[in-house]
Amino acid sequence: MLLQTEHVSKEFNGIYALRDINFQLDAGEIHGLVGENGAGKSTLIKLLTGVYQLREGRLLWNGQPATISSPADSRALGIRVIHQDRTLILTFNGIENCFLGLEYPTRLGRVDWGAMERRVRQTMEGLGIDLDLKKTAAELSPPQRTELEIVRAMMTDCRLLILDEPTASLTDQETDRLFRLLRNLREKGTSILYVTHRLDEIFLLTDRVTVLRNGQLVETVPTGSVTREQLIAKMTEQTAVEPICRRESFGPVLLEARNIASRDGRVKQGSFSLRSGEILGLFGLGGSGRTELLECIFGCRAITGGTVLLDGKECPGRTPEVSIRSGMVLISEDRRGKAVIGNLSVRDNILLSSIDTFSRRGVLQTKEGNGAVAKQIDALHIKLADPGQRMLELSGGNQQKAVFARALMTSPRIFLCDEPTQAVDVGTRGEIHRLLRQKADEGAGVLYVSSDLKELLEVADNILIMVQGRTRSCWRNRDLTSQQVLACCYEDQEKEVWP
Amino acid sequence: MNRLAPRKILQSYGTILALVVIVLVFSLARPDKFCTLTNFINITRQISLLVMISLGTTLVMSVNEFDLSVGSMASLGGVMAALLAVKGLPMTVCFALPAVISFFIGLLNGWIVARFRVLSFITTLGMSTVLSGVIYQLSGGATIFEGIPKSFSFLGTAKLGRIPLLSILMVAFVVLFWFLLEHTTLGRKFYAIGGNEETAKIAGIRVRKYKTIAFALCAVMACVTGMLIASRVGSANTTAGDGYFLQSYAAVFIGCTVSRKGIPNAAGTLVGAAILGILANGLTILQMPSYMQNIITGGIIILAVIAQRAGHGDAA
Q1: Closest residue to A320, CB basis, from B192, B202, B312
Q2: In which domain, by residue range, is A313 found?
Q3: CATH assignment of B30-315?
C-alpha cells in the first residue's frame, strides 16, 4: 500500500470539511475520486500536497508514518499534482517549465541548456510524449500543456500523480491520448489519483474508486463492481428536500435568453426563460459555466451569439449600466472581487448603483441618500456600528446583506443571484431566501445559482441544469431528488427532459 | 482595544502630527525668521502651485491610475500661454485656450488607458515624451520671455493686501476639489472605481467614462499650474513643470495617510504639499545645503508611503 490515511479530519472555523477519512491507495493503481461540489475532494488533495496542514489523524506512506507540512514535503515524498488551472509559466519554453523548482545544471558557472534539454527529452521518451520543447507554453495547445505538466511531474521520481479535472478543456481524442499516457504510467509503477466530475472517465480509466460525501468517505470499491447509478446513489443523499414554499403558476416572462454564447467559450449555448414570480434555480457542476452565463446576460462578459429578451423585446448592446436601468441586478459570487469596495463606507457601497437618483445637478443630496440607506439597513437588519464604517469591517453575512441593499435601492424586477448565500451564516441564509421569495411574490423573477443542490431544492420553483457550457434540462421542483438532478449532470448525451 | 488605541491615533493623525512637529522644530530653531507672518504668507505662495498641480494628480489617483505627463503638461501650458501672449491676444484667450487644449490631451490619455486597458504608467510616460517634443517644436527649445506683455504677469504676482492671489487661488481650488470628491456623484464614482473597478462596473458605473474624465481634469489642472508658473516669473521655461511632477505624487501619497480610508483626498494633498513646502522653506532658512534638503524630503516621502501601506494592511 502506497498511501494510507488514518482518521484524518480537517475543520475550518468549526465546520468539518473532512471527517474521519480512512483512505487507502495502492502502488500502481489508477484510483478515482468522486463526490459532489463541496464533498471534500479538494480538501483531501490539499492535505496530500501540503497546502493544508494535517492536524487530526495520521498519514502512512509506504507503511511508514509521514508528515506533510509543506508543498516541499509532499514533493520530497514523490507526490505531484496537476491542477485544472494549469501552473505553467506561459512565457517559458518547455525546458524551462520542466525545470521549474529544480536546480538548473551548470557548466563553468553557466546554465547548461544542452544537459537540460537532454534530461527533458529522456523523460519525454520514457513517457512516449512528443513535444516541441523550443515552443513557449503559450504556443502549446491545451492537451500539449497537460502533457508538458506530466513531463514536468515525471522529471524526478514521482510515486503518486494527482490529476484534478485534467480533461476539462480537452476533446475526446485528446482525452484518449491522455488516458493512454496515464495507463502507461501505471505500468511503470506510478500510482494515479484521478479527480473528476465525469463519471464516464471513472469507468474508462480507473481500477478503484472512492466516493466522498459531505466530507466523509462513503466507500472505496473496485470500479468494475459498481454501475453508474449505484455510484451516483453513493454520492448523493437519498433525501428529497421539502421546499419552503413553491409556486406553480407564474406571471409573464420577464427575461428570456436564447442561445447565449460567450466569446471565451465558457458558455456555449445558454437558453432559458424566467417568469414573474418565479425562483429559477440554476445548477451545474464546477466549470459548467453558470457564473459566466449570468455575466453574459448582465452585460459584463462579452458574448458572440444569442439574444437577451426583456419583456419579450430584444435588448442588444448590454452593459451593466443598461441592465440595472432596465431593472436587473447581479449579486456576484465573488464578493470580495466584484461585489464590495472594502475601503469605502457601507453607506457608499449601498449607494453605488443608485447614486444618480440622489443627485441634483451632480451634487449628492447627502440627507436623502443617507435616509434611503438607513431604511435599507433597517429593513435588512444589517448589523453595524455606523453606516460610515468601512465595508471590510463587517462580517461576511452583513456584507452580503449590504450587497443586497445596494441591489434593492434600484428597485429591480430581475435578480441574478450567483451563490448568494456563500460564506454567510445560517441566519442570514434564511433571511436571503425569504427576501427573494418575497420579491418573487411581489412579481420579480429570480435566477438563483447555487452549487449546493440541497439549497436549490429548498428554494427553487424550477431547476435549470447546465452542463459543460450548455443549459440542458428544466425540471419542475416537485418530488425532485438530488440524485435525479446529479444524474442529469453526469449524463453525457444531450437530452431534453420535461418530467 | 486600549493597547491598539495609540496606534490608531497615530494612523489617523500621524501625518498632521508630523506637520505640527516640523513647524514647531523650525519655529524653535529660528523664531525670528521662520515663525513670522510674512514667512507663513510666503509659504502659502510657495506651495500654491504644487497644491494646484497635485489636486489634479489626486483625481487620477482616486481612480487608481497614474498620469506621469503632468510635468510636461504644465510646461506646455506655460509655453502655449506665453506664445499666445506674445502674439498679442487678449489675456482671457491666452489662459483659456491652453486649458481647453489640455482638456483634450487629458481626454486622449484617459481614452487610451480606459479603452485599451493599458497601463496608465506607460501610456502617460509616452504622452509626456510626446508633449516634450511638442514643446520643443513650439518654442524652439528656448525660454520665451521677449515681448510678453506686463498684464501676463498679473495672475502670478498680484496681491490682495498682503495675500498673494496665488494663495487665494490655491484655497479656492482646494475647496472646489474637496467638494468635488466628497459631495458630488462624480467624486463618489471616482472613489468607487479606485476602490474596486470590477465592483464599480457591476454596480452600473461607467468606468471608462469616469476614468477619462479624471485624466482630462488632471491635465487641465497641470496646464493651469503651468500657466501660473509662467505668469509668476513672466516667462515660459520649456521644462518649468518637470520639477513639479514627482513632488505632486509625493504630496498625494502623503495626503493619503491623512485619510482614515487611506485614499487620495483634497485636504490630505494640501497637508502633503504643506509638509514638503515647509520643509523646503525651513531648511533653507536654516541654511541647510540643498543635498541635505533632498535627503530629508525624500526620506519623508518614503516614510509616508510606508505609513500608508501599514495603515491599509492592518485593516485589510
Answers
A1: B202
A2: 253-490
A3: 1.10.3470
